[in-house]
Prephenate dehydrogenase (Bifidobacterium psychraerophilum), 367 residues
Amino acid sequence: MVTAMPDSHASGMMHPLKGAEASPILTSAHKIAIAGLGLIGGSLARRLVERGRFVIAWNHNDRPYKEATKAGIHCVDSLQDLVTGKPDVLVLATPLVTIPGILKELAPSWHPSITLSDVGSVKGEVREQVNAAGLGEYYVGAHPMAGNECSGFEASSSGLLDQALWAVTVDEQTAYSRFLTVADMICKGADNALIALDDGTHDACAALISHMPHVVSTALSNELVDSADRNIAVALSAGSWRDMTRVSLTDPMRTRAMVEEDSRNVEALLRSVAQRLTNVADALHDGDEAAITRFFAQADPFRVFKANQRDGGDAENRDRESDGASDSILLDDASWREELLQSARRGERITAFLTTHEARIMTRAMS
């Protein structure tokens, strides 16, 4: 398997590709259709337009159209208009519950040249819906790790996706050319980075760093609401409370939908966190200093990782890229999916494709 090449990076040597020829001719996603002009769909549309991509968009109502048109987004009246425009990529940016109905409308007029993608925070269920609609061979999942507690096109902003990392999900039927098309939209079109995963890995990790924390954040806010001294507590609150409860300010129905869509992973994580909290509560009750010390010290690798970021690790990576000294990986036609998954597990993220089979990477790894 061809993976990152620490020895050849320094010398500039290239490892031979197995079953693939590196071509400088890259697939382009110049025309992009977006179904849904909410916070994420609207922010993506704005960003792509600002960077020279042609964007057509549909929304379930026309309220955003006036402002979207001012931003250079070409708004259309129907979902069918998105398909007949023959975009390179059609991105679903609507609530997951609406996707089956949207796919049912899109499928009869689908054109094989279009690659289907989305921006949902859960990938396994979306792929099931896409397969049920008969569009699985055209689908490449995507999830930009960006957002805030607001919603609607009026809250959208190109800057919401500044330095965003996208998770791109593939399976055994994903065509490499379609992956490259979505990668072009992300890396060149949106000036973002990506990692490539399978659906299960994505959904488990998204539950850990997003879905489960939304529940924990809401639990903290619920504790405050139930306190007889809540007004005193709010008066005393500062940075730690603000940061830990920010996502609890999200529309509760939106949060509920997100959590329920990944319920199995979230349930397991909540039980694990609850056990950790019970253990430290028991240690505090028993005066078990060793257990208390272990609890607070266990996160040291994450603290070191974040300290390195603050001390310029990311800036050093960006400087290496601008100097042309960044690392790269070569991808093989037969095993590119597994190679990309292992690359993600090493903490590598793709910032650009240099050829069809060579990708520039930046590493942000926790030891």
Q: What stands out?
A: Residues 203-298 form a domain with the 6-phosphogluconate dehydrogenase C-terminal fold fold (CATH 1.10.3660.10). Residues 1-16, 319-325 have pLDDT under 50 and may be disordered.
